[in-house]
Amino acid sequence: MIDQQLASVLPAGSLFAVGGRVRDELRSQIEGVEIPVKDLDYVVTGVPLEDVRERLARIGKVDLVGAAFAVIKLTADGQTVDVALPRRERSTGIGHRDFVVQSGPEIPLEEDLARRDFRMNMIARALPSGEIVDPYGGADDIRNHRIDILTERAFEEDPLRMLRAAQFAARFDYHLTERTLEAMRASAKLVKTVSPERVADEFTKLFERARKPSIGLELLRATGVLEHIWPELLEGVGVDQNEWHAYDVWRHNLETMDATPPGDATLRLAALLHDVGKPRCKDGPHFYRHELVGAEMAREMLSRLRFSNEATGTVEHLVRQHMYNQDPELSDAAVRRFIRRVGVEHLARQFAVRAADIVGSGMPKRDDSNERFEARVWAEVERKPAFSIADLSISGADVMDAMVERGLVQADFRGDRRVGDALKWLFEQVTDQPERNERQTLLALLDEYFLHEAASFGTHA
Description:
alpha+beta; Beta Polymerase, domain 2; single chain; two-stranded antiparallel sheet; Hypothetical protein af1432; 4 domains; 7-stranded mixed sheet; Hydrophobic Seed Protein
């Protein structure tokens, strides 16, 4: 293991494991659960940087990636880890960039630990002895399932820590101390100074890793942080729904999100935002066209935090389509049109949002119509009919050749919207009768289309 390799080339008493790895090792011991170790970070004390580099080069490839902060990336046996000299930081303003940073072998390990976000992360493990170095009581916080700060200025120094507090609370099911909550309330508006990408990154960790992400979002709401990030979500607080919902819109959205499984941040975002448009569409007990308003809101909210185009587009689409009719008695053609509208690639997530929506209502499930409808859909997918124009047995080139053969266009014709219109018409015929998706049949149907559209084609011949 790389711990032993590092200890073998560094002076005795100089090497320490730090960061989330140590916290999670202690959580495993205290809570009796297996937590996989991810990032491996180390601090080396009392050894000059050049000496550290020379020693590490004996066991692997070294790259100095933080010359100003003395951070070395070591790659050995296919594994890359960070090895740093201790640092101390002095705040010169508000925000994570407003610091004077010093690093060097003479800085005590305790000062390096003190610059971290929460006491549970201010713990080191001496290597190879395994002795815990815990000057600020972080292990006690872990035993008591709490998140605490060392100084009331923690969130002023780096406002991103408020989002980290929320996602840690949700992921570990820990509570924030009153002092930590008060500091978050006092610094809430400073979250606006955090870059959108960093906010999105913390939200992604929350949605992917927490069993109940609502714990984190509720913390951000209660401390006033969320209103500076996604005020649209808070529009649902206190907005009552009809008799089929036990919660207001805010709580319903959270419950729906929690009802989706961890691991898929895109799905959880869609579940969270599926009814975000309801408050703006309320008309008595009704919320007409809220899925359309919500889709536009979802796109703006995710774009503002610079989520990827793929995630943003998918969430917008799932929100827009989430009010689909789940009638298991629909005709085969209607089922195929549903599949076309949603897209085969989105079906699993779309159904997951609907299932979570039902759980998130807080009311007893009414019947099994959703399950029967989904079975119909998947059975139709298995039949592999044409679900897009690309699935047709003829192409745009075939349509252009047919137009030239019939004298509808000149021989050098390179296509225009009429080609697309013809393909769309053919696709509709195939949707109604999938057995028509055969080359000769489609070419014959194309003749019929040209006959009906002769006037249109004649004007361009």
